[in-house]
């Protein structure tokens, strides 16, 4: 079978699997129940005030009612910081289950760090969770994770991360460690400060995310003690984290999921404009940047699958060749996760057959934390097949995350299993 024919076959199978997954995941995740509280400004959370109001990280700038089945939902705009420590507005959602909290103590808040949803304004999870914007398999996956957390009785603080969903804030710094950690930690602060929710201002909190969200959750675990020391983080769940961007530059290049590498390059360009990444691109590379900025995840996967980055650079070298040299080698090192000991118990979960993010990457991050004395629980994620195992991992990851966080909130996260994986 020729390579092009094999690529077409994979694309056809992908479309079939995606269609099936959409049918499964959209059941029960549609937004239907209204309920929200608001602060004084209820104009669109996607419009930034000019000038931006002064405030503390996590302060709520504005809020408006949103919709979600089984929960009181409030869309918010809050303050956080980018990779250069500049304060910027970020959008997100706070969801409080309609059912009373039946667990011990106060109702916990769990920050949900979404997995890759795209770059265009219509992709923002705060929109798709409310039944707006792009509705596809990705929005179904996001809904399944949120539903699992809400079913456990947790309040959910969902961030959109920095990005164009709030007008005038620039591109999304995709999988960049500092801005994603900041936005995850600050959305918890925002949920604690949002009036009318009944949530405790200094109660127990947790963090959970998968894929992009897994690295955002892991980065937040590393930075919590210094960036948000007042938060009582009881546990962090990190699923399939892309912890080493240097490795991904090689494994994603020319693959079915080459779009994610394109997103990462946009993220680097946004967070580190001084590196002049765009200066390396030929016309095809510049065109890809422009097109990728307008896509959500699923269309991007189909549009850019099997793209070789050597066809996008002026001198024909792959992107990985540049990322191993100055100034990009420093950027890759700064965004590697595993160098700082988390101050709380963490669970890291990854499919042994992950077809997007190599399992060795998640395992190395967990081992690095173990070497620093962290309380780490490693667990293999149930795999269904060698193909699509990364996406299908979202079928079981939400319940695994919720169950482990429940034990963490009860003070029973265990002592981890360092040295056994």
UniProtKB/TrEMBL annotation:
Signal peptide (from-to): 1-33
InterPro entries cross-referenced by the UniProt entry: AB_hydrolase_fold, Lipase_secreted, TAT_signal
Molecular function GO terms recorded: triacylglycerol lipase activity
A Pfam family annotated for this UniProt entry: LIP
Keywords, in A-Z order: Signal
One of the GO BP terms on file: lipid catabolic process
Signal listed as a keyword: yes
Keyword Signal: yes
PANTHER family attached to this UniProt entry: LIPASE 5, PTHR34853
Name of the protein: Secretory lipase
Lineage start: Bacteria, Bacillati, Actinomycetota, Actinomycetes, Pseudonocardiales
